[in-house]
Amino acid sequence: xxxxxxxxxxxxxxxxxxxxxxxxxxxxxxxxxxxxxxxxxxxxxxxxxxxxxxxxxxxxxxxxxxxxxxxxxxxxxxxxxxxxxxxxxxxxxxxxxxxxxxxxxxxxxxxxxxxxxxxxxxxxxxxxxxxxxxxxxxxxxxxxxxxxxxxxxxxxxxxxxxxxxxxxxxxxxxxxxxxxxxxxxxxxxxxxxxxxxxxxxxxxxxxxxxxxxxxxxxxxxxxxxxxxxxxxxxxxxxxxxxxxxxxxxxxxxxxxxxxxxxxxxxxxxxxxxxxxxxxxxxxxxxxxxxxxxxxxxxxxxxxxxxxxxxxxxxxxxxxxxxxxxxxxxxxxxxxxxxxxxxxxxxxxxxxxxxxxxxxxxxxxxxxxxxxxxxxxxxxxxxxxxxxxxxxxxxxxxxxxxxxxxxxxxxxxxxxxxxxxxxxxxxxxxxxxxxxxxxxxxxxxxxxxxxxxxxxxxxxxxxxxxxxxxxxxxxxxxxxxxxxxxxxxxxxxxxxxxxxxxxxxxxxxxxxxxxxxxxxxxxxxxxxxxxxxxxxxxxxxxxxxxxxxxxxxxxxxxxxxxxxxxxxxxxxxxxxxxxxxxxxxxxxxxxxxxxxxxxxxxxxxxxxxxxxxxxx
Length: 615
Fold this sequence. Notes:
- The chain has 615 residues and is of the alpha/beta class.
- The protein folds into four domains: 89-327, TIM Barrel (Alpha-Beta Barrel), CATH 3.20.20; 357-411; 441-510, no CATH class; 516-598, no CATH class.
- 51% of the residues lie in helices and 9% in strands.
- The protein has an eight-stranded parallel beta barrel, surrounded by six helices.
- Strand 1, helix 4 and strand 2 form a beta-alpha-beta unit.
- Helix 7 (157-167) runs parallel beside helix 9 (200-213), helix 15 (357-383) packs across helix 16 and helix 19 packs antiparallel against helix 23.
- Its cofactor is FMN.
- InterPro entries: Aldolase_TIM (IPR013785), DUS-like_FMN-bd (IPR035587), tRNA_hU_synthase_CS (IPR018517).
- This is tRNA-dihydrouridine(16/17) synthase [NAD(P)(+)].
């Protein structure tokens, strides 16, 4: 058994068997919506799968040498049963799907230190289908270390089915996002905003379409509905529509008015997951929420009866969250484990992606321009907008274009990418538990290893900064380097920040606390909290207005004018007259400040669109 939980049964053989089973099931599928046929075929299908997978391991790290027959004392025999009853991979310790956070480099780090299954970040199924060539290449790059779940948002059955078909050979399961509570999901009508009763037929048709389109399992990630009875009913309906596993984020689907337990910032309601699991004892249910330490992993699994635990927030702070499942390094330190030997995605033998020499000068010029812009931004922050001239203002407006060009350079490999593998095989090396523990128990070491992975598997710099901030938060705050980290525009700059932390840790006398810097950071945090409070107050007013008017849809006014203005939209609006600009803004963007985006700043703050989304 390999580190990632891949079974000794090949993916191709397993897929062929599942395809044959699926064809038999479809012949039995005579009823209109397919539910009855699915029920009839499930028992026979499950018996055959159990027989095929009777020899599958539990997805542990492979132990080498004389101790190869021993298992970690932290595992119970039920874990082996759970992993072989449903899928040819272990699914008890899961890295959650996270936009801008569960990219390949971070997935590999978490998998090395204990996670056994990971999801891609959310991908839009409609966009994926429209941009199939480029999007499929991204997933193909990600399939080197399996098992992998491809995670899609969808609100059209045909889009979900097509997207699932496109990635089928690159992953081991397809997941439907019914859990995202963000405003983007609200505006785009996907995620948890599809969980209302009015969209139930649509949701079930999406799951059914995906299940019919592919031979690999369809997973679903949901949030709690208003009552545990409603959540339980939903899970039964999803299962009958073709879902093979359901992950439950034990917080409510919409949190406009909620505070306390079940709200976004409150504790998860794991007792409701337990109720759902009790009603579906033979169906895989994953619990998500209230996981900070490995003790939480154990206690949550016991209290809910769930088949596995999924973590997002906890594992962002500690990528080695699941590491204790491998054993105690103090008593079992000499145990040897087989772990992946990372290699670049390109055919080039070099260990880092390189820019072609012909483009090297262009890259250097772009980096220089970005540094100049950052200097201007710092000047504005310290001395106000009046301290810069017109030429500097124009340079500020070019930041988004320059950053986009730099991101494109960062993605250029040194040669054509190799033909993507679909068997999930990879080279390995051997480490002792003590060697693994030395990094697992050191946040700075984890961050440095993450950066080394980013150099092999490039991602956006804001993602790199985000992970570094989460992993090293206490160290960055202790040494007043948080703002330095946030302002980084390259991986090398992040590496420099980590080097400072390492130096201050080893030589404490070299660090000097800056009172003025601390005061500025405190003021910035206070401003951020005030702005967040204004948004919550607005949401409350709009919901109360809908209630007063007797509207069934309490989110009606929150939907009007919620569209986020992108850089492209801002540029188009600047070419319109004031009257035309105001009309468009009232129609599409009234929840955003027109003056903030389009007019000259009157104080000492200015806004510069530096991302795909300007708001």
